Each structure stands twice: as C-alpha cells, then as structure tokens.
C-alpha cells in the first residue's frame, strides 16, 4: 500500500495560503519545482503542544551570553516511516531539549516519493527556530 489514507477531519486544502507564513516559507511553498511536484494533501500541524524542557549543559545555550546573538533558521522536516506525524513531533521536541527554540511550524503536506518510487508517501513541513550562536 503506497501511503496511508488520512481521516477526513485531518484533510485540508493546500490551495489556501496560511496567513502566518511569511517569505521564505511563502515563497518556497508557492514556487514551482522543475519536477512539478504538487502537494496533494496537508495535515494541520499537531494537536499536542511542544514540551519545553530545561536545556542541559551540553546544549547550544552554553555559549557565553556576551558573545551570543539570537539566530533565526528554517529547518525542513519530513518522514515516510511509521508514525510520520510522531517522528516530526519528536524531532521538534528533541530540538527544544537541545536549546533550539521552535518558534513556528508550517502545515504538513503529504507528497509522493521522487526518484525511488517503491516507498511510502512522505509528510513534509518546515519550522522556524531561533538559537544562540557566536
């Protein structure tokens, strides 16, 4: 079976822009790739709030406060194995545990695999994070 069918309550139209998404997310989502892959379906992010954990001494936050400046980054997320939403949630939680603050997340789009076609459909999304670096 290629991909899993999503319950009707989780389906959403991908043609509606998400108002909180600004440029680079908005530009990336609207850009047409040369392979002309169009996302078929999307899920709302997660019904479970991300847990905030105290960072350990080995985390990014260990940097000197006089040298550290908040940095903004965008990270692509995706999974096609098992509990796809669960794996993406776990990735966001692990970033939070390491002192990387997840500020915003996009919706999740289900896409067919490219290149290696004998695999399950992917859930893809992105997140905006802030971290401290030198």
UniProtKB/TrEMBL annotation:
<dbReference type="Pfam" id="PF01288">
    <property type="entry name" value="HPPK"/>
</dbReference>
<dbReference type="InterPro" id="IPR000550">
    <property type="entry name" value="Hppk"/>
</dbReference>
<dbReference type="GO" id="GO:0004156">
    <property type="term" value="F:dihydropteroate synthase activity"/>
</dbReference>
<protein>
    <recommendedName>
        <fullName>2-amino-4-hydroxy-6-hydroxymethyldihydropteridine diphosphokinase</fullName>
        <ecNumber>2.7.6.3</ecNumber>
    </recommendedName>
</protein>
<dbReference type="GO" id="GO:0005524">
    <property type="term" value="F:ATP binding"/>
</dbReference>
<dbReference type="InterPro" id="IPR035907">
    <property type="entry name" value="Hppk_sf"/>
</dbReference>
<keyword id="KW-0418">Kinase</keyword>
<dbReference type="GO" id="GO:0003848">
    <property type="term" value="F:2-amino-4-hydroxy-6-hydroxymethyldihydropteridine diphosphokinase activity"/>
</dbReference>
<dbReference type="InterPro" id="IPR045031">
    <property type="entry name" value="DHP_synth-like"/>
</dbReference>
<dbReference type="GO" id="GO:0046656">
    <property type="term" value="P:folic acid biosynthetic process"/>
</dbReference>
<dbReference type="GO" id="GO:0046654">
    <property type="term" value="P:tetrahydrofolate biosynthetic process"/>
</dbReference>
<keyword id="KW-0067">ATP-binding</keyword>
<feature type="domain" description="7,8-dihydro-6-hydroxymethylpterin-pyrophosphokinase">
    <location>
        <begin position="74"/>
        <end position="130"/>
    </location>
</feature>
<feature type="compositionally biased region" description="Polar residues">
    <location>
        <begin position="49"/>
        <end position="65"/>
    </location>
</feature>
<keyword id="KW-0808">Transferase</keyword>
<keyword id="KW-0547">Nucleotide-binding</keyword>
<comment type="pathway">
    <text>Cofactor biosynthesis; tetrahydrofolate biosynthesis; 2-amino-4-hydroxy-6-hydroxymethyl-7,8-dihydropteridine diphosphate from 7,8-dihydroneopterin triphosphate: step 4/4.</text>
</comment>
<keyword id="KW-0289">Folate biosynthesis</keyword>
<dbReference type="GO" id="GO:0016301">
    <property type="term" value="F:kinase activity"/>
</dbReference>
<dbReference type="GO" id="GO:0005740">
    <property type="term" value="C:mitochondrial envelope"/>
</dbReference>
<feature type="region of interest" description="Disordered">
    <location>
        <begin position="40"/>
        <end position="65"/>
    </location>
</feature>
């Amino acid at each position: 079976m290629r991909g899993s069918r999503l319950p009707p309550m989780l389906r959403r139209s991908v043609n509606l822009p998400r108002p909180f998404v600004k440029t680079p997310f908005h530009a990336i989502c609207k850009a047409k790739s040369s392979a002309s892959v169009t996302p078929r379906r999307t899920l709302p992010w997660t019904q479970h709030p991300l847990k905030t954990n105290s960072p350990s001494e080995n985390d990014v936050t260990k940097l000197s406060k006089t040298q550290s400046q908040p940095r903004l980054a965008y990270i692509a997320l995706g999974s096609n194995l098992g509990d796809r939403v669960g794996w993406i949630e776990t990735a966001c939680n692990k970033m939070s545990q390491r002192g990387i603050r997840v500020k915003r997340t996009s919706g999740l789009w289900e896409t067919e695999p490219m290149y290696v076609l004998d695999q399950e459909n992917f859930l893809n999304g992105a997140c905006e994070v802030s971290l401290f670096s030198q």
